[in-house]
């Protein structure tokens, strides 16, 4: 059966995404897939101006990491609802030797945060009430991540990477349809700060029309200062004072953040999570992101099935994906958090025998009646089951340089326009609402409870795929909160099992677990399968117009080819 309503509060996000989709028509940009000659490289991003910024850096001889940093900075100008220097992210880099690095720039809770950070008068705040203002702001991580990655893999001077973004901020950019719809959808947050109202709204409080040129001189000046002085210009001095003051004196939900909180932040280089899938090796981000674990678990559970023969038109294939996702999400909710604070059993969760045992629970033609968390080696009995709300103000972009190095980067401010607080022309994130607002379950602490200095769990899933010869086959990722790993899984099954090009795989719909059934993207190739899926025993099968967004770059016989989601204004640009 179908049902357009969503009663389960855990997946209120899906309802928000559906509402957002109704305000965002299909993209008008048609540069989604561009054949690329082998030598220059490519950039795929959610906005053509940001992709062009990365391509400019590649033309100047920059590395894939250099181009990714320039793309991130530019997206903070033209896609402020999704990312920027006031947010954080995860970056996975890989080269032709098979070496993979991952960088954790996830935002961190201030020193005075604790398990009842989001409680008032003995009761937890509603998620929507916790989003706007200072209480939800984590110390931003994107610039620290960029500096660490540049130190490891940069080729051009740091300041050079800021040039395209500074020009965009100084000279202005035309508002695209997706930004305009986001200004309407997230109006109360986007218009919370007077500086933001002055940039994006008219005197009556109405979002400026599509095509209006917006100039952001405050952000241009801030970027010039960071370009000249390095990341210290962000994490100390006047900028740190401004962040701490805005958070601590916010008219909504003020919270105690200090300059010491900001100065103490450091991005981390962490080990990647990698696993084989058929003839390929897939690498992604480990905790505090749960996305990589979910993707690798699902693919591992699917490996015993002949997905190629089933094909994309088979309801059975999508049922197998859905039940594998249900099992992986259950493990996520129970076990994954910031590994600096909780003992995440990552090796146990990715163990071949463990995944095989989880796969054995899946029937080819009947839905699992329940999908509980498993018992991986290294698990702890002191953790309770969590019920998180995920980020959905997010973007993904991919770069590849002339040497075949790739960078797959997911960046976020969490909800649309983050906390709504603006400092020097950029929005501060609301990343702390990715923690479990209710810290304990059944008398046990959850892995993703709020703690001082801790980084909230994420679903971000940047991936790099290697072929059997050790060459990069594909790199990609997605935006869309809890749908992120499901979008990446769809992309990988589509390209690796079903022989699609990356854009065709991205264009397919997604299937998404819910507590009492599954959701499929309305209007996609999956909606006609609803009767067949319902007959397999899912409690509900819901069609929703989800606000999805993915980007990838893949190697083909003729060279690199980029792919961007036709649902967005995404584009691929070559140098």
Automatic annotation (TrEMBL):
Q: How is it modified after translation?
A: Cleaved by autocatalysis into a large and a small subunit.
In the UniProt record, the signal sequence range is 1-26
Q: Name one Pfam family in it.
A: G_glu_transpept
Active site annotated at which positions? 394
Q: In which pathway does it act?
A: Sulfur metabolism; glutathione metabolism
Biological process terms in GO annotation: glutathione biosynthetic process; glutathione catabolic process
Q: Which UniProt keywords apply?
A: Acyltransferase, Glutathione biosynthesis, Hydrolase, Signal, Transferase, Zymogen
Q: What GO molecular functions are on record for this protein?
A: glutathione hydrolase activity; leukotriene C4 gamma-glutamyl transferase activity
Could you tell me what reaction this enzyme catalyses?
A: an S-substituted glutathione + H2O = an S-substituted L-cysteinylglycine + L-glutamate; glutathione + H2O = L-cysteinylglycine + L-glutamate; an N-terminal (5-L-glutamyl)-[peptide] + an alpha-amino acid = 5-L-glutamyl amino acid + an N-terminal L-alpha-aminoacyl-[peptide]
Q: Which Gene3D superfamilies match?
A: 1.10.246.130, 3.60.20.40
Q: What is its EC number?
A: 2.3.2.2, 3.4.19.13
Regarding protein family, the annotation reads: Belongs to the gamma-glutamyltransferase family.
- Protein name, per record: Glutathione hydrolase proenzyme
Q: Which organism is it from?
A: Novosphingobium nitrogenifigens DSM 19370
């Amino acid at each position: 059966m179908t049902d357009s309503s969503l009663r389960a509060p855990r997946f209120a996000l899906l309802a928000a995404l559906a509402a957002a989709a109704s305000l965002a028509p299909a993209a008008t940009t048609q540069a989604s897939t561009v054949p690329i000659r082998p030598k220059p490289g490519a950039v795929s991003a959610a906005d053509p101006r940001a992709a062009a910024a990365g391509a400019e850096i590649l033309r100047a001889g920059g590395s894939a990491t250099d181009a990714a940093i320039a793309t991130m900075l530019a997206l903070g100008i033209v896609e402020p609802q999704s990312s920027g220097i006031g947010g954080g992210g995860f970056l996975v880099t890989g080269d032709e030797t098979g070496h993979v690095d991952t960088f954790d720039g996830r935002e961190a809770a201030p020193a005075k945060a604790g398990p009842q950070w989001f409680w008032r008068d003995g009761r937890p705040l509603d998620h929507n009430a916790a989003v706007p203002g200072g209480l939800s702001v984590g110390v931003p991580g994107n610039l620290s991540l960029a500096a660490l990655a540049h130190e490891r893999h940069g080729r051009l001077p740091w300041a050079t990477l800021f040039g395209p973004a500074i020009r965009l901020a100084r000279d202005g950019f035309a508002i695209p349809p997706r930004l305009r719809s986001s200004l309407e959808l997230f109006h109360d947050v986007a218009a919370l700060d007077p500086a933001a109202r002055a940039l994006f709204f008219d005197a009556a409080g109405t979002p400026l029309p599509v095509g209006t040129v917006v100039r952001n001189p405050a952000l241009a000046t801030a970027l010039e200062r960071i370009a000249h002085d390095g990341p210290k210009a962000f994490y100390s001095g006047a900028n740190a004072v401004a962040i701490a003051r805005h958070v601590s004196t916010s008219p909504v939900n003020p919270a105690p953040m200090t300059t010491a909180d900001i100065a103490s932040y450091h991005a981390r280089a962490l080990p990647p999570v990698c696993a084989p899938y058929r003839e390929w090796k897939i690498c992604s981000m480990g905790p505090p992101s749960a996305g990589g674990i979910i993707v690798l678990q699902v693919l591992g559970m699917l490996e015993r099935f002949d997905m190629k023969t089933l094909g994309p038109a088979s309801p059975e294939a999508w049922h197998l994906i859905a039940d594998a996702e249900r099992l992986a999400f259950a493990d996520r909710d129970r076990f994954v958090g910031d590994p600096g604070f909780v003992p995440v059993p990552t090796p146990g969760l990715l163990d071949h025998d463990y995944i095989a045992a989880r796969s054995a629970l899946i029937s080819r033609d009947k839905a699992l009646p329940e999908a509980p968390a498993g018992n991986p080696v290294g698990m702890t009995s002191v953790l309770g089951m969590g019920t998180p709300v995920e980020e959905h103000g997010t973007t993904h972009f991919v770069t590849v340089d002339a040497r075949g190095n790739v960078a797959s980067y997911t960046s976020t401010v969490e909800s649309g326009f983050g906390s709504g607080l603006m400092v020097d022309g950029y929005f501060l994130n609301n990343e702390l609402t990715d923690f479990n607002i209710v810290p304990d379950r059944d008398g046990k602490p959850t892995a993703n409870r709020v703690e001082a200095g801790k980084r909230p769990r994420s679903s971000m899933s940047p991936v790099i795929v290697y072929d059997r010869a050790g060459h990069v086959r594909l790199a990609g990722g997605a935006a869309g909160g809890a749908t992120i790993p499901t979008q990446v899984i769809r992309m990988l099954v589509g390209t690796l099992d079903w022989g699609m090009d990356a854009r065709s795989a991205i264009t397919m719909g997604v299937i998404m677990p819910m507590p009492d059934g599954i959701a499929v993207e309305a209007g996609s190739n999956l909606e006609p399968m609803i009767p067949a899926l319902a007959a397999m025993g899912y409690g509900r099968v819901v069609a929703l117009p989800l606000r999805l967004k993915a980007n990838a770059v893949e190697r083909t016989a003729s060279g690199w080819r980029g792919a961007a989601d036709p649902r967005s204004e995404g584009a691929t640009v070559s140098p």
